[in-house]
Design goal:
Elements (H helix, E strand, L loop, with lengths): L1 E6 L7 E9 L5 E3 L17 E7 L5 E2 L1 E5 L2 E4 L6 E9 L9 E3 L2 E4 L7 E2 L7 E6 L8 E4 L3 E5 L2 E6 L2 H5 L3 E4 L1 E8 L2 E8 L6 H19 L6 E9 L4 E5 L2 E7 L14 H15 L26 H18 L5 H16 L9 H6 L12 H4 L5 H16 L4 H13 L6 H12 L4 H8 L7 H4 L5 E12 L2 E6 L2 E7 L4 H5 L6 E5 L2 E2 L2 H4 L5 E7 L2 E7 L3 E11 L2 H8 L1
Parallel strand pairs: 1-12, 18-19, 19-21
Antiparallel strand pairs: 1-2, 2-8, 3-7, 3-11, 4-5, 4-8, 6-7, 9-10, 10-16, 12-15, 13-16, 14-15, 17-18, 20-21, 22-29, 23-24, 24-25, 25-26, 25-27, 27-28
């Protein structure tokens, strides 16, 4: 067994001290993941590891040398009991890292617990020691745990992969439990908040029961929602039987939360629904080459349009099916999804399969050119899922049936490939889906929403809502009008105006957003860095397209949605 001991005595400086004890191989390599499952970016967690030291069973220092960015090596250990200790800097308030201060200890073991090469299958035990000042903190985690002494907890994991995919939090927490289809669920929230817990409990139970019923069973025996309430942060990360969520506290339900959830509360419920759905579609059903993760380097797949796209389609749909939101609210969410797609020029440049493959270098690193050159496998993937669902329904099946088949295949250790999806679509409908699927995922052609939606009771109209003067996205600042983006082929970009320029004058007058809405050629003065530039720009307005969705056959609409 690998034994980890984590102490938080230096929490005010955001440090935790980790001690690992193990029986070493003669030349033992220790390593730390470079990325965390479910978040596809090389995050270089090893940069936060400090002062690594090693000792033999008698307490004598041993040589431990770092030979790669995330690997250390011990020499001549002769199968003896070894102790390795080090500090970890923990001040990342995201769901992917670790965060330690006087209010909260949150740890993703992927960025804190060194693993042993060739011993990754060994069971792991983690002991947590709380300083006296915070011994009132309580624990939340998806791992089996116990506390025999106040301020001390023991966690167990069946192997290293289970350990690094199971975060834990120690903090002042508010929590409740509920049963969903015979499975115990726990919701835990920390941070300052004033949550209507009974309302949240009622709604979460409906969501969880709806998702379990959809798949027929769950790939976990219990489940924990871990939530930190903040001012404006937002995000989530899935794990096998838990999820970490970070949300604006104003998105949590209020005491007077209306029957139809507010926009913010809908957003939070959608986040819960999304991450919970990942328990099936990502943690259990995976791309074929993710059956075993390679956490040392990028692991490429062109299938994130399935795993994030399908999940993004279902997260809002589940809110409707569970009765948590109305059909009217769902159609507003669907409209917003389609509007984002229509307003993204990059959909004409990059396919959703290419977006999936490029996630390692693009998705988590957006810049001023992102909307010109790329598409989102979340956004377009959700609409691909919609098109696939309606296409399958045209031939008597559904996307529900397809994801259930994927679940059944994963239970037989058959994971996802594009070939498997094509084969299952053919089994479900008797049709060859090669051409249809290729059109949806491997081309930049428009999605057939206008063709499909009317057949299922929803009229689809594209409207021109507003314009972008000179093809620029801008915001007024005290120093002038800041250019946030210059859309490709707009007259502003063609004239040489770029993102981050600060427009200070238009035809000799102080620049304002209103003055940019002109119908004539203008002379623009702008600062780029500290240099003053002059541009002659032809008047032009790039239209922003939105969609209008109007129910016209309630029976067909309900058959699809419910």
């Amino acid at each position: 067994m690998l034994h980890y001991q984590i102490e938080f005595d230096d929490y005010q400086q955001h440090l935790m001290h980790v001690t690992v004890r193990f029986m070493a191989n003669p030349t033992q390599v220790l390593w730390l993941p470079t990325w965390i499952p479910g978040s596809y970016l090389i995050r270089e967690f090893a940069k936060h590891i400090e002062a690594v030291k090693a000792y033999d069973e008698a307490g004598r220092p041993l040589t431990i040398s770092k030979f790669e960015k995330n690997k250390w090596q011990l020499f001549n250990t002769d199968h003896e009991l070894i102790t390795v200790e080090y500090d970890v800097y923990a001040y990342d308030l995201s769901v992917r890292g670790s965060y330690v201060d006087q209010t909260r200890f949150y740890v993703n073991p992927a960025c804190a617990c060194l693993g042993l090469q060739d011993q990754e299958d060994a069971p792991c035990e983690v002991e947590l020691f709380l300083p006296k000042a915070v011994q009132h903190f309580t624990l939340a985690t998806g791992l089996p745990s116990k506390s025999a002494v106040k301020g001390r907890y023991t966690l167990k994991a069946q192997n290293y992969m289970a350990l690094i995919d199971s975060p834990f939090e120690l903090a002042e927490q508010t929590c409740f439990d509920f049963d969903a289809k015979g499975i115990n669920h726990r919701f835990v929230v920390s941070g300052k908040h004033n949550t209507n817990l009974e309302r949240l409990k009622t709604d979460l139970k409906k969501i969880c029961e709806t998702e379990i019923a959809m798949f027929g069973s769950a790939p976990f025996k219990d489940y924990t929602f871990m939530t930190i309430a903040t001012g404006n942060s937002y995000g989530g990360l899935e794990h096998p039987n838990s999820t970490s969520l970070i949300t604006p506290r104003d998105d949590l339900p209020k005491t007077d939360e209306p029957q139809e959830p507010s926009e913010g509360y809908q957003r939070f419920l959608g986040l819960c629904s999304h991450e919970y759905f990942h328990s099936w579609l990502v943690k259990f059903i995976r791309p074929e080459n993710y059956a075993t993760y390679n956490l040392h380097q990028e692991s490429y797949t062109s299938l994130l349009w399935v795993f994030e796209g399908f999940t993004s389609y279902y997260d809002d749909l589940i809110l409707l099916r569970s009765g948590v939101i109305s059909q009217e609210s769902y159609l507003k969410l669907l409209k917003a999804q389609i509007d984002r797609y229509l307003q993204n020029a990059g959909r004409h440049v990059q396919s959703v399969a290419e977006s999936s493959f490029d996630t390692w270098i693009k998705f988590y690193r957006p810049d001023e050119n992102t909307s010109n050159a790329g598409t989102s496998y979340y956004n377009k993937g959700a609409l691909v899922a919609l098109c696939l669902d309606l296409g399958l329904r045209t031939y008597g099946s559904s996307l529900d049936a397809l994801v259930r088949r994927l679940y059944e295949s994963a239970q037989q250790n058959i994971q996802v490939t594009e070939r498997l999806i094509l084969a299952l679509c053919k089994e479900l409908t008797g049709q060859d889906w090669t051409e249809r699927l290729n059109h949806l995922i491997h081309t930049t052609d428009e999605l057939p929403l206008a063709e499909l939606l009317p057949n299922f009771g929803l009229k689809f109209e594209i409207q021109t809502q507003e314009s972008r003067p000179f093809g620029l996205k801008t915001v007024e600042k005290p120093e002038g009008v800041l250019v946030q983006q210059a859309w490709r082929d707009g007259t502003g970009a063609k004239a040489g105006i770029s993102a981050h320029d600060v427009i200070i004058a238009i035809d000799g007058l102080k620049a304002t957003q209103k003055r940019l809405n002109t119908t004539q050629e203008v002379e623009i003065l702008a600062f780029r860095r500290d240099e003053l530039l002059k541009f002659s720009v032809q008047a032009d307005a790039q239209a922003q397209h939105t969609v209008k969705l109007t129910p016209h056959d309630e029976q067909k609409l309900k058959e699809w949605l419910l």
